[in-house]
Specification:
The protein has helices at about 1-20, 25-45. The protein has one domain (about 1-50). It is mostly helical. The radius of gyration is 12 Å and the shape is elongated. The longest helix is centred in the C-terminal third of the chain and has 21 residues, at about 25-45. The protein is built from 2 helices and no strands. Helix 1 (about 1-20) packs antiparallel against helix 2 (about 25-45). The termini are close together.
């Protein structure tokens, strides 16, 4: 659940930043989003019961 929450937060932060602008570092937001995605996919592969 924590990995999904992290992914959802990172996805939201990144997409808002690139579509609406505002303060924040786009590269850092993208990197966090990518890392959260990779972690989520790794966990889902190891534990398919957690996949949506």
């Amino acid at each position: 659940r924590a990995a999904r929450d992290r992914y959802d937060r990172a996805f939201h932060a990144y997409t808002v930043l690139i579509t609406e602008g505002g303060s924040g570092n786009v590269i850092e937001a993208r990197d966090e989003y990518a890392a959260a995605y990779e972690d989520l996919k790794r966990i889902e592969a190891a534990h398919p019961e957690y996949a949506r």
